[in-house]
Structure formats: C-alpha cells, structure tokens
Specification:
By secondary structure, the protein is of the alpha/beta class. The chain is built from 28 helices and twelve strands.
Length: 686
C-alpha cells in the first residue's frame, strides 16, 4: 500500500476516481435511485475512465499547481453539475439538457425561484469534494511529482483505458445487465439520451451531460422500428368516419422515409361511435389551458366558479398533466395535436414551421367552424404567432393584438379577467352564422409566488388569515383572479344568450411547480409521490349536461379526440396518440413524460423500472407490462418521427392527391356510364 501511495499518479487517480464515484452514489441516494444495481457498476467504470483521462491530462504539465488545479476544477465542476441537476429535476421535473438551450434566455427569469427551491439534502453530494479538498490541503499539495516514463507509462495507461472502455461497453450490451422492462435500451440511450430520467439513472449525471452535449452537437437518429401495414378491412369504414386514403397511401408508398409512419397510422384501431357521439354537435367550443392549476382549485369556498363547473359538468378524477421540457409549450402542443412532444426538446418552438392539418383547429375548420386562439402574453417563451396559424388557427391573438399591457420584467403577469373580456368581445361580436371554437391559454397564475406582485398580493391577506404561508397565499390570490375570469366568461355567455350552446373544456398545463412539496402539501391532502403531484383537473361543462364523475386515468393527450367525438366532427381517430375517453376502446392509463405510466392497478416507474401494485394479488404478467411498455415506446417514437419529418404536411399532400384522383376517376366513370347509356338508347331507337 505504501508503494502505491508513493506513486503520485496512482494516488491522484484513485482519489479522483473515488471522489467522483461517491458523488454519483450520493446523487443516486438523493434522487431516490437504487445503489444496488448494475448501473452502479457501470457508473464506477465511467468515473474511473474519466478520472484516468483527467489525471493523465493534469500530469502532462511539470508544474505542481497546474496538476492540482486541473483536478480540483474537474471535481468541483462535477459536484456543481450534479447539484444543479438534482435541483432542476426537483424544480422543473426534468433534467437540464442542451437540447432545450433555446429557452435558457427565458428561463433565466426563474433562477432565484429555482435556487430558493434547493433543500439541504441536495448538498450531501458536496461531501466528497469537501473530503478531497481536506486531503489536498494536508497531503496532495505537498507532493513532489515524478516525471512520466513516456515509453512505459503511456503504453500502460493506454492499455488500461482501452480495457476499461471495453468493460464499460459490455455493461451497456450484455443481456444480464439490462432491465427487461426498460422503455429504451441502454445501447440506444447511449447513442441518443432522449429519455433523460432513464439515462441519468443508468449512466450517472455527468455521463448523461456528456452524451446530451454530444447528441446536441452531432444529432443521431435512433434506428427506426419496422412497422408493417395491417389492413383492418372495410368494416371500420362504416363504423366511423375515417379516410380510406390512409390505407391506400400506406400500401402504395415506395419512399422508405414515410413507410413506417404510414404503416403505423394506417394500422391503428378506429374508435367506433358511442352513446356520447354528437352530444354537443353544432355547439360552440371554448378550450381553456389553465396556467399552473392543480386540484387545490376544487374548493367551493375559495374558487366557486371553477368548482361549480367541476361539480355540475363532467370531471375526470384521475387526470394528470405530466411535466415536460418547456412544460407549457410542450403540453399545449400535445393538447392541440394529440401527439407526444419530444421530451428533451422545446418541440413547438424547434418545429414551429411544421403544419398539422389534423390538429384541433384543422378538424374544426374542416367541419365549418370559425377558429381562434389566444394567450395574454407576448412570444417571449413560445412562438405562438407562428405555431398556432401553422396548426390551423383562423386567427391568433397575443397580448399586443388584444391591446393588453405586459410588464417588462419577470413576475408581473396580466389579468385573465381582462384577457377574457378582450377575447369575448372579438368572438361574440364577429358577424357569422358559423359556430366558433377557440383555444385560450391563461397566464395570471404563473409563478413566481415568493415575490410580491399585483395579483399575487390582491387577495393574499385573505388567504394568509386562513392559515396559509405567504407563497401559497400569493398562489391562491392569483387563482382567485383566474376563478373570477371564469365567472366573467360564464356570465357573459349567459347574457349574450349563447351559454347553453357553448361547451367549455378546462385543463391545466401543469401543476404549480414554482411551489415545492412542502407548500403543495398545504393545499393538497393526498400523497404527492409517484407523480401524484402532477394531478390536475380536467372538466367538460355545458349547462344542458348531467353531472358525471369519471374514474379513468387520463392526461391532456386524450382531450382532442374526446372533444371531436362529442361534437361529431369528421376526423380520423387513427392519426392521434390519444383516444376518446368515452369510447369502449379507451385504455385507462396516464403516461408521464419519461415513459412511466399508471392506472388503477399498477404504477410503472420508467427511470428505475420499478413496478408498484396498488392492490395485493393484482399483479400483471411480465409479458403484459412489457407489452404496454412497447406500445408506449412505439407511440413516443412515431410521434417524434412524425414531428421531426413534418409528416402531416406530407400526409395532407398525399390525401389531397388521392381525393383528386378519386374525383377524376368518378368523372371518367360518369362519362363512360353516360356514353354507354346514350349508345344503348340509340340502339333501342334503331
């Protein structure tokens, strides 16, 4: 042992390796990951490889202070990055990623709220760095380093590095070190770490960061899953309004770029009509995406307008709004298209020029509605002036078009009451015999809640007297403004005589993640673990309906097909990842951003591949769990490929070509029939 520590390179290497490995293990503990898994062995190898490279680079200099500075900087950076990632996942529900760097300019506004959310336990990860600094002060900084023997030392180090890399590669590929339920294989994650929670658990925080940076600089597409076309036959065509073009396109396409996507969508099951089909046919539709709303808004004393619609309409008790990268933008995108957004990308911004004929605007347009959309803020975070028109919105209104003033600093948001006033003036005063459909995204209840603001302080004293903390009181104060806006909406529609003919759909973009769990527990009385913190209300309200409580598990991706069926729109249900909630084909399930999922029986955690059953004796066969995981993984993959390739623009062109050809064929057939009839008539005359 003494000989080992006489070799200063070996000493620095071992200490650097042990320090970073302990950082990763403490990161696992704080993050709730298991230490006793093959991933820990994989991380032990990766930290050794990195330590070997850094120590070698430090020893290229002959100056002692340079050697020590390089290693100190490396370990300090390693520690800071790990702490920041723990804070990020706990605050935003996602890990930092270079693929969302386009939002860094906007998200910098959150920095103080983000730092204020840190808990002391996060800094356990700093213990190895502190220990290393103590060792450095008393031992390492006094070392006299020997010069490398170039011919021998470098060769041995190279051999050690190659051997370590080979063993690391084997941990990624050998079958017994893989989890059978994992939604994406470690090999695919290493190439493209686009499921960050799983990648961080399997590779560690720092290797994920390296892989994420690599995929940002050198994007690599996963190998496509091969999907074969399965003809469902003509029976489905008579049971629901679907386009026959889709099957023909799938059978005749020769370009491999589109084959799998065509085959996938054409092969999906068509949800049939049901007893709810057309219940609201011809009625106006207002869809409202509520900013940062959770189940605390279901409170008759504090928020009577929302609670009235919740109790007198239909509500889904097990509804969720899973957080995502660029939470509001990505979740709004999924609500508008019923596609999974790209988890580690600001999907709507990066692909803002895509078009989606099958979006909620597109299908309402096709069915004779006049469509609009609006948000009471500017395009600082999301490029809605481009995104919404490309999705088919007849007219998008931002704060400027509405004549609303917005503050030039973060934290002071406009009033949703004024927002609804402005939009209703536009919608209800437009001269048209067509029913309207509008999509409104609110903003008043946006964070921060720790700072003073106009609407955060408006009703703060009332809620503070009720026993709530300052932050929760400000949040509730903002929710009170949102609730008053909903009251104004209903009252105005009633006064104009259109309330009975209007369906109001309420869903949330995400829960108020600007408040940590201790604050959330002040307002919610159920366990917040296992993604329960992401429960949010989903309500469909009309004065003519009978109240119903639905227990199916759901999330925002199912809103579009559900609305389409209720209004009896002509649409093709195969083009959506969501399903009509009222259909017999609906599978009760919520899918979270990383591929985790939950229903009445089981919760599957994708980041750890753990399975939790809610009732003893109700365990599902392993094959069924894997089948569900495979289905979800394929839905996510097909959504991503459709978005990245602008597939629906291609598909719209192909459908137009098919329909034009059908019209041409029909005209030719009519001419031939007319000609044959004329010839027959002439023969009879003769």
């Amino acid at each position: 042992m003494k000989k080992l520590f006489k070799d200063k390179f070996a000493t620095n290497l071992i200490l650097c390796w042990l320090t970073t490995f302990l950082i990763e293990m403490l990161f696992k503990i704080v993050s709730g990951f298991s230490l006793f898994s093959y991933s820990s062995l994989r991380i032990a190898l990766s930290t050794f490889i990195l330590a070997l490279i850094i120590t070698y680079l430090s020893f290229l200099s002959k100056k002692r202070w340079v050697k020590n500075t390089i290693i100190i900087f490396y370990i300090a950076l390693y520690t800071i990055y790990a702490v920041l990632q723990i804070g990020f996942i706990n605050y935003l529900g996602v890990y930092m990623s270079f693929n969302t760097s386009s939002q860094f300019g906007a998200v910098k506004d959150y920095i103080w709220d983000y730092l204020a959310s840190f808990k002391l336990i996060y800094f356990l990860v700093c213990i190895p760095l502190v220990c290393w600094l103590i060792i450095y002060i008393f031992i390492i900084r006094k070392h006299d380093y020997r010069k490398f023997n170039v011919s021998l030392s470098h060769v041995l180090l190279l051999v050690l590095l190659v051997l370590s890399c080979y063993l690391y590669y084997k941990t990624i590929t050998v079958p017994f070190m893989q989890n059978e339920f994992q939604i994406k294989s470690n090999k695919k994650l290493f190439i493209n770490p686009d499921v960050p929670t799983v990648a961080v658990n399997q590779f560690g925080a720092t290797v994920f960061g390296i892989l994420d940076f690599k995929s940002f600089i050198f994007p690599v597409e996963d190998e496509q899953t091969t999907v074969n076309y399965e003809d469902q036959g003509q029976a489905v065509v008579v049971s629901s309004k679907v386009s026959p073009a889709l099957g023909e396109i799938a059978k005749n396409e020769t370009d491999k770029k589109w084959t799998n996507l065509n085959n996938y969508f054409a092969s999906q099951k068509v949800t049939d009509y049901n007893s709810y089909t057309g219940m609201f046919e011809g009625k106006n539709v207002i869809v409202i995406l509520l900013e940062s709303v959770n189940d605390s808004m279901i409170n008759e004393d504090y928020f009577p307008n929302f609670t009235k619609m919740y109790n007198e309409g239909w509500h889904w008790k097990n509804s969720y709004s899973p957080r995502n990268s660029c939470a509001t933008g990505n979740n709004e995108f999924s609500a508008l298209t019923s596609l999974y957004s790209i988890y580690n990308t600001c999907t709507s911004n990066v692909y803002k020029n895509n078009t989606y004929f099958e979006s909620i605007f597109g299908i309402f347009n096709d069915n004779g509605y006049r469509t609009t959309s609006a948000h009471d803020f500017v395009d600082w975070y999301y490029r809605r002036h481009t995104i919404h028109p490309n999705m088919g919105s007849g007219k998008y209104y931002g704060a400027q078009e509405l004549g609303m003033k917005t503050a030039s600093y973060y934290g002071e948001w406009p009033s949703d009451i004024e927002f609804f006033e402005k939009m209703l003036d536009i919608i209800l005063n437009e001269e048209s015999n067509k029913p309207f459909m509008t999509f409104l995204t609110t903003v008043t209840s946006h964070q921060p809640y720790s700072n003073s603001s106009t609407y955060g302080d408006l009703h703060k004293d009332f809620f503070h007297k009720e026993g709530y903390s300052n932050s929760v009181s400000r949040y509730f104060s903002k929710l009170k403004v949102v609730d008053d806006a909903l009251g104004y909406l209903v009252d105005t529609l009633r006064a104009r005589g259109v309330l009975d003919d209007t369906v109001i759909v309420l869903l949330a973009d995400h829960y108020p993640y600007g408040l940590n769990k201790s604050y959330i527990k002040e307002m919610i009385d159920y366990d917040l673990n296992d993604y329960e913190i992401e429960r949010t209300p989903f309500v469909i309200y009309n004065t003519q309906m009978q109240p119903e409580e639905h227990l199916e598990y759901t999330f925002y991706i199912n809103a579009l097909p559900t609305i389409a069926n209720l209004v009896n729109l002509k649409y093709d249900p195969r083009l959506y990842m969501g399903t009509d909630l009222l259909s017999e084909d609906y599978e009760s399930r919520v899918v979270f951003a990383d591929g985790s999922w939950k229903n009445e029986k089981v919760y599957y955690n994708a980041s750890t591949s753990r399975i939790k059953y809610f009732d003893e004796g109700e365990e599902l066969p392993a094959e069924e769990i894997q089948e569900i995981n495979n289905k979800i993984a394929l839905q996510i993959e097909m959504s991503q490929r459709a978005i990245k390739s602008n597939y629906f623009k291609y598909l719209k062109g192909k459908i137009d070509e098919y329909e034009a050809q059908q019209i041409e064929n029909s005209l030719v057939n009519n001419e031939e029939t007319t000609g044959e009839a004329t010839e027959t008539s002439e023969e009879n005359t003769d």
